């Protein structure tokens, strides 16, 4: 399986070429957020705002009121936590078309608790007018800007940087409010987002070989959350639903699915994989995915508990179907 | 080097501080070579500031923590009685002793290296740096050696230090609170809110050392977002401000001496050079924030440089 180096960096340059109304604002993380190519290509459309995220949100709001489309680039934590009030009042309330591009989702960084966005989806979901998109592979990354730009109002994009696997056909772009159906199955359905989708693909491949009839959908629109294909998959899942997200189970995908199921009166079990109401700490992605139960084995265990009891699958069995994309993370990263 | 107890801080030993600072540079360079990456320019700029704080300014007791850092014991919560902070490496808490609050925690490698040179951490403590399950984190957090608060979302530590200083004043303690900050933190609004509050509440038991290396992630600060004239801005906010050569231990220590009670925060702006002691680094400017060597040739050059520095130190 292919992986792509810095897909956002290149894509942003090409994509913005014909869109003079698109601006980039950065808070001293320009290369770390792959906006350096844009800065060098279109210096007149790039604005360095210093390490001052609250103020940056206000500037973006003002620019958006005047007809520009500001693309904020910084780490997700520095979009959703410190300047939350500015995002809520200056941007979300007036429904301004500011695009918030947030990097280092969840435990993808060794930078520890201050750099790990485990609550960003939750924070953005509670804001009226905000729409939320999350990328799970290079094709998502390359097509998400088109989707964001077509939205009338603020958008939060949970972005991937660096080496990104290509899980989905290049010719099949991310579609707003439409999950990617990766496999059909009616015993249980797995809904995954972001980097968890790759893990879920490993697990579902392995359990299918053991005869389980498990469906799998990759969700990239987290708000709104009324995709008919998601509802249908949940309604058809005879014995339960599993959500898997690189985020707290409170407020993200798991919560959105729980709300949907309750409102639709779908009375089946729901297992939410994700950070179980805990902060994390600085360590490698693989280590943290295992520690917090975000990896393929955690999903196998969840399926076992829902469907069959022990399947006897080992790490080796999962490694056997491992997609050759996730390299040992380069831990010496730019933060 | 032997463990340093409570400092007689009237006469900082400039030569000793310089040699500790140079040892910190060498250790950070060695680590950067071995791990192919590190916050090396921060060691170059801040080594004398941090060494002066520990050896010539702060009144700290002996470390309370093991030489080999304890592994991560889980995040703080009501269910986790095992969570701890790294403050014990700076000695016990006592009314007459000072406290150290480390703010730009991407400088963690520099602080760990200094703690090793001071004997507060064992010589192999960096083996655990950025390892899974370790507290010797890449970006320090409150469980990391020498750290007391979680500060990696920058410009939050100064306010927390203000609260600690206020609490100490309320309790009538004589020990002071020392904060180490980077200049990038003066772009955040919170820093200025903190200084307004420190002045308004006449908090004089706090001293802030700023590594003014004029660098940040994107490059030179004046190409990202200027903060000058920093001294005048801070004076206008009610602080007592000194601007000194940040590589001169005596100049660094002088503003902190004197025992009279103060009624406003003390700020020492340490003007520093991000390539100090490693001339070679200048070739990489303006990309100095995180140093990663690219070619075998570059590795060889820096290895030779490290050898030379080691020999010079003997
Ligand atoms: C609130 C916040 N925004 C952004 C960052 C990401 N970041 C880490 S270091 C840094 C700036 C580096 O400049 P400075 O603090 O002066 O340190 P130095 O250049 O000396 O390394 C930034 C923007 C952060 N840690 N916290």
TrEMBL record, chain A:
The keyword Secreted does not apply. The keyword Transcription does not apply. Residues 2-166 form the Transketolase-like pyrimidine-binding domain. Keywords: Thiamine pyrophosphate. Signal peptide: none annotated. Its cofactor is thiamine diphosphate. Gene3D superfamilies: 3.40.50.920, 3.40.50.970. InterPro entries: PDH/Transketolase, THDP-binding, Transketo_C/PFOR_II, Transketolase-like_Pyr-bd, Transketolase_C. Belongs to the transketolase family. This is Transketolase. It comes from Thiorhodococcus mannitoliphagus. The lineage of its organism: Bacteria, Pseudomonadati, Pseudomonadota, Gammaproteobacteria, Chromatiales.
Automatic annotation (TrEMBL), chain B:
InterPro entries: THDP-binding (IPR029061), Transketolase_N (IPR005474). Its cofactor is thiamine diphosphate. Residues 92-272 form the Transketolase N-terminal domain. The keyword Disulfide bond does not apply. The keyword Transcription regulation does not apply. Keywords: Thiamine pyrophosphate. Coiled coil: none annotated. Belongs to the transketolase family. PANTHER family: TRANSKETOLASE N-TERMINAL SECTION-RELATED (PTHR47514). This is Transketolase. It comes from Thiorhodococcus mannitoliphagus.
